[in-house]
Specification:
It is a single chain. The chain is an alpha/beta fold and 216 residues long. Helices cover 36% and strands 28% of the residues. The chain contains nine helices and eleven strands. The strands form two sheets. Strands 3-2-1-4-5-6 form a six-stranded parallel sheet, with helices on both faces. Strand 9 and strand 10 form a beta hairpin.
Length: 216
């Protein structure tokens, strides 16, 4: 796939670098020459230019990208204009970094297909881990439901899923177990699956109930 990354601050730099290292075709753009120079070894093509300009974007072939990520830091106007121009070029997926709820609404209104809040999301993730040390990763779903990776509480060790009866006790379903010793993943483990202290549980359920388990 072809990716365009507009804005090479910390977020833009690392997303462009990671995509490039994964073997993707990456066009990196920024108006700061030093940032562009730092991307030359981590992108297919790095361009020094003002991105909130329709003619500039067309000149570098941004319309040929499958996905464009816009991360222009505090420049709200620039990000809004860039999304607007990209939308007019019929790019399939436009991902824009938002600084606030109002900014997000405007970005969506002018054509962003995805709006992200990297700082907010990382803050929430960090707070969740601080509040619930057993939580390793989490994926919020709709209606207060989450998927989480958790280290099993001490109470779970040595017991099987039938004994734990998580469905009836907590409305929680174990959908996978990542074994570390030996390294193996079990999808939808059976009722007789015994939990070890080296296991990581992938569970789904109401956020309130997940918090109960995570704090055990």
């Amino acid at each position: 796939m072809k990716f365009g990354v507009i804005g090479l601050g910390s977020f833009g730099f690392y997303i462009a670098k990671t995509l490039f290292e994964l073997g993707e075709d990456v066009l990196a753009i920024d108006k700061d020459k030093e940032r562009v120079d730092s991307m030359k070894n981590f992108s297919s093509h790095a361009v020094h230019m003002e991105a909130a300009d329709k003619e500039n974007l067309q000149a570098v072939g941004i319309q040929e990208m499958d996905v464009v990520i816009i991360s222009l830091g505090p420049d709200m106007e620039g990000s809004i204009l860039a999304v607007h121009y990209l939308s007019g070029m019929h790019i399939k997926r436009i991902i824009a970094k938002a600084l606030s709820e109002d900014h997000a609404k405007i970005l969506e209104a002018v054509g962003a297909t995805d709006v992200i809040y990297p700082e907010r999301d990382m803050a929430v993730k960090t707070a969740l881990k601080l509040s619930n040390p057993n939580v390793l990763e989490s994926l919020p779903l709709s209606s207060g439901i989450e998927i989480r990776e958790i280290a099993p509480p001490e109470e779970f060790i040595g017991k099987n899923l039938r004994e734990l009866d998580l469905i009836n006790r907590f409305e929680i379903q174990v959908i996978a177990v990542k074994g570390l010793v030996p390294e193996r993943t079990t999808i939808v483990p059976k009722a007789d699956f015994v939990i070890k202290d080296s296991d990581v549980l992938v569970v789904i359920g109401p956020k309130k109930q997940l918090k109960r388990i995570s704090s055990m």
